[in-house]
Structures
1.
Amino acid sequence: MNLFIDTANIDEIREIYAWGVLSGCTTNPSIIAKSGRNFIEVIHEICEIVDGPVSAEVVAQDAEGMIREGRLLAQVHPNIVVKVPLLPAGLQACKVLSDEGTRVNMTLCFQPAQALLAGLAGATYISPFIGRVDDLGWDGGDLIRQIVEIYAQNDNIHTQVLAASIRHPIHLIDAALSGADVATVPYSVLKKIVKHPQTDAGNAGFLKDWSAVPQRDVAALATAWLAERGQSHGT
């Protein structure tokens, strides 16, 4: 499963991308609005940082407008994936854009039948909202599993399942176990995932024990050892 970050905050993207775990980024009008910056400038800057798909959402509500915005957004950067809401007009726009070779992420999916339509319209990604589905009293993980199964039984559908609306680490695990191709995760959740008290305690214990070693500069020791053997080394 690939991992995307769900944000338009450049500092957050730079920090998490440096971890070496991200394959892409998703945004939406709400996220972009919070940045207070020019929409196109933000999207382009993200694309220059993230070497992978970056979802940029249209705001038009009619098919013609979605298609026009989608075509223009696709020209901003090769990494752009046009994000379209799962509405009748969105399906029409998805079909046109997909047939033209533009990648489309159909968003706001809440039931498997919607995902089937998105797949038939040629969507590159379908974004079921796990967290919001849970809020409705249903099981977001079951939604992912049903969509994955539907797609697996249809050879003419090549849409990837992109789990969205992930609120906590358990949602991410559920998405991975349910067969999602991608999960897009907010910065705050990613920070929680990498944090664990036992990891911190174990690391502190290692450092305490190592502090008693007389020669404890690992880089200096390795450099000297390699130099003695005439081996090349980095700095």
2.
Amino acid sequence: MFELKVVRERRPGYGSARRVATSREVYDAFRERFAPLDREEFLVVPLGGKNQILGFHVVSVGTLTASLVHPREVYKIALLANAAAVIVVHNHPSGDPTPSAEDVAITRRLREAGELLGVSLLDHVVIGDERYISFADDGIL
């Protein structure tokens, strides 16, 4: 027998009070978190029906140049949080937020998985040094 509970952490800046409408707002919400990191981290940000941030979850901690991500891990959190949509965010410790071929491939897989589950992938934001790339803004998503 298993029992599953979702426990919401109350962190400053996250929760029902903070909404995101643009990729810049996503960047502003997470850039300080990524600034000191020396390896890639991949986060999922589940959103409520009005794009309020319900929290965030570290899906993967990788190396200097890569991070393993599986759609199952991204959408598990989204489903547990009763999210209407998700945004994924990761950093490039090199400072250059230009998406890699792997970044594009996982974004396509995540979009397809989200469509099957009824949880929209709204954006994939890659954060570098003082700049970012948005897959939605750039028409990749």
3.
Amino acid sequence: MRVIGGTLKGRKFYPPYLSPTRPTTDFAKEALYNILYNVWDFEGLKFLDLFAGTGGHSYEFVSRGAARAVSVDAFGESVAYIKKMAKEFNVEDRLTVVQSDVFRFIDTCTDEFDIIFAGPPYGLDTLDTIPDYIFKKGLLPKGGWLILEHNPDHDFTTHPNFLELRKYGTTYFCFFEA
């Protein structure tokens, strides 16, 4: 895996097998960041990475100038790996790693983030509740985006905050706006 843009562009990271992570493919990731790059100025953004896995999206945001990224994952192996890579990439001052159940984290979080990315396991029973949960807790300012990665088994096009859907094979990115 590699960072595809910014100051860390081209830096590779080799995560060990981290069950139950499912890293976003390079093809889908490049398409996603092309969309984001054309809409957002990354400089100074606050970013939240839910179900962070390998931390790939957090590395992309800090690489592109985000002031702060927070990676949340319940699995100790993932948390340890993201911390290791934050140190190796020398971005520990802008990348905070939290080991927590994502829903518990959302319940206790008092921060707002400009962009939230959620890449839950596709088989997560509560996947369909994630957008409502985030909007109910007020984690995004007006105009902030939630990006939910999911498979074709879910449809959010009628959600009141739905903005856009992009499909890359069986990887879907659903964009929501506060």
4.
Amino acid sequence: MVNEYEKEVKERWGDTDTYKQSTSRTSKYTKDDFAAAKVDQEAATEMFVIAYGNSYGVKSEQAQSAVVAHRAAISKWFYECSVEMQKKLAVMYTEDHRFKAYYDGRVRGLAQYVHDAIMAQ
């Protein structure tokens, strides 16, 4: 099964160790593995939703727990996600309309909150 974004991802990051690690891991995954990865990612997103919905600041324990869960899910399923890499992802969450739509589709303003919480660590 070819992901519709695979070509773009390969063009942007194909020469990086992160891409190679992710490709190596995911090449062995079953449909159930991908479903489990999605559950972990959604759980981290839900932690952001709860923190944001309860007006916790981006430096709060609740928001920072979501940041840690987000990074842990990526590290568990795809590649070792450093704080530096996570911050690069955070920029994409506000600058790439697809990521922004994902987060803001959950709660308006969530993409910026996730960005700010990740940058606050």
